[in-house]
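Hi! If you just cloned this repository, the fastest way to understand the data is to look at a raw example. We've pasted two of them here, unedited. The first protein comes first, obviously.
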Amino acid sequence: MHDRTPSTNLSDVERLNRLRLIRSDNIGPRTFGALIRHCGDAAAALERLPEFSRRGGAARPGRICSEDEARAELAACKKLGVNLVAPGEAFYPPRLAVIDDAPPLLAVRGALDALMRPMIAIVGSRNASGAGLKFAQSLARDLGQAGFVIISGLARGIDQAAHRASISGGTVAVLAGGQDRIYPPEHEDLLFALLETGAAISEMPLGHVARAHDFPRRNRLISGASLGVVVVEAAQRSGSLITARMANEQGREVFAVPGSPIDPRAGGTNDLIKQGATLVTEAADIINAVQPIMARPLALEEPDDDYSEAEPDAGERARIVALLGPTPILLDDLIRMAGSSPAIVRTVLLELELAGRLERHGGGMVSLL
């Protein structure tokens, strides 16, 4: 039982240049993709970064990762047994590759074949109840026996219970920090144990210590790589509900385990059920829901944001920037009001982003910083 997408392979030079690009200032996965589509390849994008940031109004160009820095990271990864893989390459989780903000390079290590098998995410409260921990373990074990890989965030509580119960069948830990900066530190033993039959993935560079804003970024990888997300226990406004929301945005299935209405740890899961999440009391509820999805072929889709010949003049740039402000605006509305082509508007937004002046929000919204 495997998920498959067409396999491609980067050259060593392109991998090095892509690493330099994603490690440069003001570049995230979406900006990276826009640059590749605009410039053709990573080498051309690196050459044009100073020009783009100047046009976007930057006082000085952002830092560009040097070739020496990138080579040093590749060497450190090799020493740790970490591979940096791109969407479409072997051992890049196929379902993760099709989300619109997939990491351009993903750091992977362990028994990498686990990354190519269908995954179910199990997440929940760090301060879990005994009953919640027991159910997460039972669910993970049953799903593992059915051939699924369990993916979670290596956190305390529900995450670690799901990982530990599914080690024999294979489990994937998604790290918020670098592959050499495990959080929480007491789960280092768990990570090393699961690497025997499963894997660990991260989009962060080695040495990166996880900070608060890194955990939602990690959560989109958990949901993106999976067929669906099971929330076992979650208080209202918890991180697990962020994962569930991201799963919905990515077109993944959302499952929730009901709990007592007087237990605050069940408030979020009960609300998810009210909002349409599939109620789960056993593994069969999940298996029956995802089987039709597994029968559909996976394919990497090309974005429709064409940047060809998009070079805005000063007047167009000024008009588009004037329409932006601190209040988020829908990209489609911005294009309509600007009266410019979609390619021109996207190019101006790319320039602003590289200058550190643009913020992207969910649902295709953007605002000026």
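Ok, and the second one:
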Amino acid sequence: MSDRTTLDTLREKKRSGEKIVGVVAWDHQMARIVDRAGVDLVSVGDTVGVNLWGHSNPFEVTMDEMVVVARAVRRGVDRALVSVDFPYGPLQEGSAAAVRAAIRFVKETGVDLVKLDGAADFPEAVEAVTRAGIPVFAQFGITPQTALRYGVEYRATPSAGDQVPERMRAELLAQARRLEEAGAVLLNFTNSGPVAGEAVARAVGVPVLGGFGGGPWLDGRMRMAGAAIGYAADTLDNPPDTYAHVARTAYDAISAYARDVRAGRQIAGGVKVPDAAGN
């Protein structure tokens, strides 16, 4: 398609000051929706384990599972770029394992980039994957895999209020530059905060995006589609600060469906059946 997003598109957005829109999606239908909505990047996050499958922590997700999810998302996206997260393991096992995992993702799912959490500790792996011809989306800052280093209590995902300590600014600047030098084409600075975040975005030539703790000081934002639309079941009891409340809509719809079934009434979208009068 002529309007297909490319890495050059994202670099031009950074140069011109136009913000980049990234969304995390885990299924085919949501991928189709966000692509039609015009986002620039669809990230297949390993957060699928905790947020969709009920895992207790993000380390339980496997390569095989991420391949299945990435295939589904890739089939739903025509225009945006698609990246996929490495699960915990291949990056930590060294450059050779990282290259094998990246090649598998590209060959079996057709993604455009691979995202490496905690990439600042493995610049040699970033370089090796890049040398293999696969673009790298490098994540650093307070992430699910690095939170303890920054004195943040472990959670599946740090909260929006967490920020990297200001004393770490110089180290994070060095990490960002090191990742760019290693070949990363995008950076995901998680929980950056306005001080370190703006400094990093200005210091490197590649686009810097952010999820939790990000803001307008970066080149763009990342947000889980489920979080943006209020999909999580626990929002039924805690009204969310989101753009919609899909969990409540779904609850109300299924409740109405159950009432119709129990009352012997026609269900919406079902095969038409005669009413009690035989009409």
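That's it. A detail worth noticing about the second one: The mean pLDDT is 91.
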